[in-house]
Amino acid sequence: MSPMRKIIHRACFVVSRTVYMTCCCGCCSALRPHYKRLVDNIFPANPQDELVKSNMEKLTYYSLTSPEKLDRIGEYLFQKASRDIYRRRHGFVIIAMEAMDQLLVACHSQTLNLFVESFLKMVQKLLESTDPQLQILATQSFVRFANIEEDTPSYHRRYDFFVSKFSAMCHSNHADTVTRDKIRLAGIQGLQGVIRKTVSDDLVENIWEAQHMDKIVPSLLYNMQTAEKYETVSCMEGGGGAEPPARLAEACLRELVGRASFGHIRSVLRPVLTHFDRHELWIPNDFAVHTFMIIMFSIQAQYSYSVVEALMQHLDAAGGHSADPRARTRVRAARATVLSNIVAIAAGDSVGPSVLEIINNLLTNLRSSVARDSEQKETDEKLYQEALINALKEFADHLPDFQKIDIMMFIVNKVPSIQRGNKGTKADAMLQSILLKSLLKVGTTYRTVELSKAFPAAFLEALLRAGGAGEAHARALLQRILHTLLDRRDNAPRLLRASVEYAELGLTVEKCSRQDLIFISKHGYALFSSLYEGLQLESNTMENVEAIYTTLALICIELGSEETVCDILQLILAIQQSGLTNPVLSVAQQCQLQAISISLAALIPHVMMLPRLGEYIHKIIAARREEAPHLLPPLREDYDDLHPSKMPSKLPYLMMDLMALCELLKAAGIEVGRLSASSPYAAGSAAAPHRHSWVEAGAAAGRDSLAELAAPTTELDSANSSPGLQRAGGAGEAVSLEALRRAAGGPSPAERRDAERRRATLNNAFRTAPFDQLLHITQPKYEIKDKLEEIFNSITEEPLLPASGSCSPAGQKSYQQNVPPYTKYFPELFLY
Amino acid sequence: MEDYKFLFKVVLVGNAGVGKTCLVRRFTQGLFPPGQGATIGVDFMIKTVEVDGEKVKLQIWDTAGQERFRSITQSYYRSAHALILVYDISCQPTFDCLPDWLREIEEYANNKVLRILVGNKTDREDREIPRHIGEDFAQRHGMYFLETSAKEAENVERLFMEIAVELMEQAKCKELPKYDGSLGPINGKTTSVGDSSCCLR
Ligand SMILES: Nc1nc2c(ncn2[C@@H]2O[C@H](COP(=O)(O)OP(=O)(O)OP(=O)(O)O)[C@@H](O)[C@H]2O)c(=O)[nH]1
Ligand SMILES: [Mg+2]
Fold it and tell me: With left for phi above 0 and alpha for psi between -120 and 50, is residue A732 left, alpha or beta?
């Protein structure tokens, strides 16, 4: 452009502006600036006709060559369109918008910024009209704009009008449903445009602010919830063409969630939760499940835990407007079900602290549910608990095995201990049974390979402790947990009822491994004596007896071997004996014990090559079948019609005989020294010496550091293991284990003597003291459980229960000085 | 043409069925819609009026009264310059809910927002709320008060005009940034419009 023309141009502009202000009739078109004429020329004479293409090309060319004019062109187009909207000449409005679109796309330059202001004013103007066609047109233009990358976006530009208006459009209630859907679709597209335009640059507009999210999120959900049915797919493929609003809304939500960084997730989730409350979308919960699955699938994996967390914290929130407590409980249950549906997705991405937090939170919710309704009158409350337990299971199911054990440890230590005799409150009992149920659920997700991994010492101890207390039903639950952890070969379902006919059961038996033998040598006694004691309880139902039978049968199968057979038989004989002599047991219980002891004995020849033992047992079985079928399985609830002469104690010749068994084993080449030695099981005694030392070890752990604790425990352990087994334990892995423990600090001679003396006194006490007194002594010195509770509470505050590997022997020194409570209390966990 | 001087945002709230949408349509379109359906979410209308020879653009956001939409409607309170709280003079429950509405407004709206209490449907024979009861309530809570009939076009124009006048006065006396054409309305951050607690008329 020549300098001369430029000057004229300017002059014209000044003149035309004044003229325009006074009489906008266009009478002085000769004086109009060039750009205005160019703009005027793109409009056809008739508003029904289309944009004049050739003139539009001229205008575009002009804009490209004189970009400094672009803002005036934009402003002029806007003015024209405003007038045309006012005069309802919509054809011209559409053409003006189209022209602006084309200029926007054509003119990628630094001056675009000013043009954009007019462009957006135009879009807003059209959106303000009541005509759906113009609103939709404006939205399309806006979306086109949103897809353009501006070199220097204008930081003072605000989008609240667009968010507000597009959200309103998402709720269009136009009488004509086709138009309504078009407007809603446009609204969603518009929101998507705003999100794309702003999300990458916080300076432009922080789209994550509540004022925006509270409009965008409900608008999307409102459109999604009207869909016919909800099929969740893990990701959406971009399907073109006319999409129904529901589909686009879902895609938009996915995009939004996918772009949310950690700090923004809450601002998306909060309106989601509010929307579900307000619109009462929890029941039925298929839409809620659908939505939360979508969120889980689209959120950046490392944040998926936040969704679980938010939903968990919302479980108890007062939702909707129903004050009816029963309705509230139902909503709670529905939320928990949604939780159980998504928690598995989070499990894969959760790490250390978040795992325990999730578990802890679920347990806390269970606890408050029990507190609300310990009578269990409310079926809704029960449903809620079921849903929570399911969520626990779903979550655990997707965790690696070592974390499952951590979780089980965590749960078992939350179980309120109910002392024998002292029943505890009803709520305690309820909580106990619910936690055990949870534990069972988690347990079923664990696949045992090595028993020592499934039963770290502290866990086993806690389990056995819980097994000796509580109501009959809770004790049976505990056995069920043992079943699921012991049963590696899927035999448990076949061993639920006591039987003597094993041949037809199709049991799977394999030789037990070295590691297993080491495990049983370390823990066999504790396990056996706890099970034995479990059979001596007056309150036992048939369910209890049978559950313990199953546990023992599984032990036989999993751990039966030449090294263990003596211990197992010794236990069986002790059970048989207690069924004759324990005065607290009812006749039914006595008969049941006879039946399970012979059943267990009959199982042994199926696990090991001991044909002559089999013959012997079967002779007894045959004799009982003739004379005393009540001493054989199946177990019965009552044996009321039993003639006094048929009482088990009156039939000594139908019992298994210790000497006979010894002979049979000896003949098979098995060392029977231990079997023939005096039985450590005392009928009617509530606690065997070993058990006491076990408790002692726990108590010691409460007081002493790991270093002081390790050695005495080991000493007591091995002292109580039978000598033969100790040999087995001394080999292989146990050596390194022992070494590890010693590395943690060997016992001083004084400590050794101390331990020795303690043990001696104890043994003496058990030999001489009356039963009552024994019971008294064996009460833990103080409540271990309370201590544990304290520890676990401190764990939840102190975030991470480190992976077992992190406490390597190399790090031993440092962590002796600064021992975290959990390593102190569960040293075994950290030594393995 | 885009030659207005002021832009104000007006939000209508109140129970479902009190006639919010009818009021807005009467004002913006000059009609009383037969069989007006319940509002879903939020509706939007625009009207430019003239005050003292100056053009004032009113952006009117008409919210749904139904509870389930409360979550989204609340998000519109924040940027409002004026909030019109409507009840139905022939329906006691709509009046009884006013304290709840005030609580919501308190929580979500700008505390300087101009608040107007409107008793609608004065044309109806079965009045349940006497005028002075509504007036008292408004007085106690520092609100303007007006009774209207969307059906008979009574006081509707006046309602919005008074809002425009009041907001403009506030804007002028506080010398708040006026609408400036070159920046465009979208950048006009919502300016709080002065204190409205005084001067009940
Ligand atoms: N007699 C009379 N009826 C009215 C008046 N205003 C509204 N109505 C009627 O009241 C009913 C509800 O009016 P709407 O304007 O839809 O009420 P709303 O407050 O917008 O309701 P929501 O959108 O559900 O919050 C309709 O049937 C109207 O015809 C009025 O001034 N007088
Ligand atoms: Mg309405």
Answer: left
Q: What is the CATH number of the domain that holds B156?
A: 3.40.50.300
Residue B22 to residue B33: CA distance in whole angstroms:
7
In a domain, B60, yes or no: yes
Cβ of B63 below 6 Å from ligand 1: no
Residue B57's closest chain A neighbor by CA? A128
Distance, CA of B184 to CA of A494 (rounded, Å): 79
Total domain count, chain B: 1
Tell me, what's the pLDDT at A244? 84
Structure ipTM? 0.87
Residues A535 and A548 sit within 8 Å (Cβ to Cβ): yes
pLDDT at A516 over 90: no
What string of DSSP letters covers A605-630? Answer: HHHSS-HHHHHHHHHHHHHHHHH-GG
Would you say A438 and A395 are in contact if contact means Cβ atoms under 8 Å apart?
no
For residues A757-778, average pLDDT: 48
pLDDT-based confidence at residue A203 (cuts at 50, 70, 90):
low
Residue A817: is its pLDDT beyond 50?
Answer: no
Residue at B111 is within a domain? yes
Using the mean position of ligand 2's atoms as its centre, give its distance from the Cα of residue B88 in Å: 13
Residue B146 bridge partners (DSSP): B118
Q: Which of A76-85, A295-304, A372-381 has the lowest mean pLDDT?
A: A372-381
DSSP conformation class of B198: S
Distance A566 CA to ligand 1 centre (A): 89
Measured between beta carbons, the chain A residues lying within 8 angstroms of B61 are 164, 168
- Top pLDDT among A513 and A690 is at A513
Q: Residue B161: is it exposed, middle or buried by C-beta count within 10 angstroms (0-12/13-18/19+)?
A: middle
B201 occurs within a structural domain: no
Q: Is the CB of B39 under 6 A from ligand 1?
A: yes
Strand order of the sheet with strand B144-147? B42-51, B54-63, B6-13, B82-88, B114-120, B144-147
CA dist., res. B45 & res. B23, Å (int): 11
Q: Containing domain of residue B53, as a range? A: 6-174
* pTM across the whole model: 0.71
Nearest to A171 among B42, B183, B189 (CB): B42
**Per-residue pLDDT at A682:** 62
For residue A539, give the DSSP letter: T
pLDDT in tens, A450-484: 888 888 888 888 888 776 677 888 888 889 989 99
Please give the structure tokens belonging to residue B92.
């006691």
**Domain ranges across chain A:** 3-32, 39-402, 403-486, 502-512+525-697, 707-796+812-829
Q: What is the pLDDT of residue A825?
A: 41
